[in-house]
């Protein structure tokens, strides 16, 4: 026997604990003496019942529920057992052990070369066999093979545990960055949006939106660094004031902050007291900035609302009116923006109706490329063809009409027509992969589901590949993830690749998102646009990429607008790219990729 091989096996066996069962005393002592050469921890039993009791005691010493196969100091890594034994035999012992832990390695020793015994041990997942009388070489070879298997399992388990911990830590860090403002350390607009979306009917909110007046002038006069110091100092004072009045405080944009209080009843007098106290303590506050001799006087404007619906938009409308009118604060009332809003709604509803009547829903196509710059698919983007005031033909972005359409049934007709036109193009461009936006509302729309189902059936009947990616907006407020599964099953396209759109903003919840089992994560353009200017944003994007890679999900960067951004994203490990640097959305689709 090779001495170096023996020494190597001894070094590998130090942390392994053995349970050895043999009823024959002579064989037991002989084998135990050999095993002792390699293993430091050996327990011996002479019958099946005694061995089972020892195994149970070791397992019950493990914390938590007791019957666990997680690596612990006292559990057995290896069981070596005879077949013929008193009390109950080796087969019965192995069966009982396997009910408790399927991963414990087991070696069988037996003088019986019985086929039935062999088949039963194979069924029970035995790791090795040693025929009696036991020879040293045979025992050594079986131990060496089994020990390697045990150690490989432990290494794999340790790696998996480490990977899980890394992902949890990265997710925690990302969650903090997504919900905390990097400069002021205040909760950001994502956090505010989340709270506002969960306000209960019995809760009465008071929302103050606060703007530092003429803040751009500070940046122009003193520079960005001093401007940031002003923001940090103001945030510190604002937090003190808000806390003293039992308000939560948020930074929602560059020079805008918010205060929020939730009560159980509406008390206008108390709200107006809070408004006046906030203005008294903060409007005209003198802020000391390091490096400047003089203090900087900061003035503010406020927009206030205590409605329950669309709080932020209403507070923003009130703030905008306050700034335009030169008032220190304005409380939202419906007449501030209702007339203009209604006129805008009616205008676009008429335009959409005309578009649908004339079949003027038009898909534009924006290319998506890989890191080599090769176009691999196109995202289909909705446009409507209409005429401007000078009767010139134009294609209008959904920015102007989609939110209005969502409030009516016009959205369903627009979405149906858009999907229908993309599906028609799939027939004439069978080698092109298309990516289309689909909302949960679309998935629940029977006409859209029936359209997709009939097209999927037609493609399969013609043996045509289905090259279609569904982009689901991650920020949509829904918890019914079965909607996606039921939708894909109904249209008979369960293997459809899912892309999570606008990832990194809105309602980011990684565990919630990952239940969709996406093929792609599309990193939101608001993050991509800033990676060359903001180290925090770059780290956030890198974290998202690392998170996706750990889960074997591809990443697509949106709003790639320059060679510099493209090169940085390639270096980060982003898989695919979309934006004006790659190509603008175009009406015409190339004949082939």
TrEMBL record:
Residue limits of the Response regulatory domain?
17-147
Q: Which GO terms describe its biological process?
A: phosphorelay signal transduction system
Q: Which PROSITE patterns match?
A: EAL (PS50883), GGDEF (PS50887), RESPONSE_REGULATORY (PS50110)
Q: Which GO terms describe its molecular function?
A: cyclic-guanylate-specific phosphodiesterase activity
- Indicate yes or no for the key word Phosphoprotein: yes
Query: Which keywords label this protein?
Result: Phosphoprotein
Q: Which SUPFAM superfamilies match?
A: CheY-like, EAL domain-like, Nucleotide cyclase
Q: Please report the stretch or stretches of sequence annotated as the GGDEF domain.
A: 203-335
Note the InterPro entries from the entry: CheY-like_superfamily, Cyclic-di-GMP_PDE-like, EAL_dom, EAL_sf, GGDEF_dom, Nucleotide_cyclase, Rev_trsase/Diguanyl_cyclase, Sig_transdc_resp-reg_receiver
Q: Which residues form the EAL domain?
A: 345-593
Q: Which domain of life is it from?
A: Bacteria
Which protein, by its recorded name, is this? GGDEF/EAL domain containing response regulator receiver
Organism equals Sulfurospirillum multivorans (strain DM 12446 / JCM 15788 / NBRC 109480)
Q: What is the lineage of its organism?
A: Bacteria, Pseudomonadati, Campylobacterota, Epsilonproteobacteria, Campylobacterales
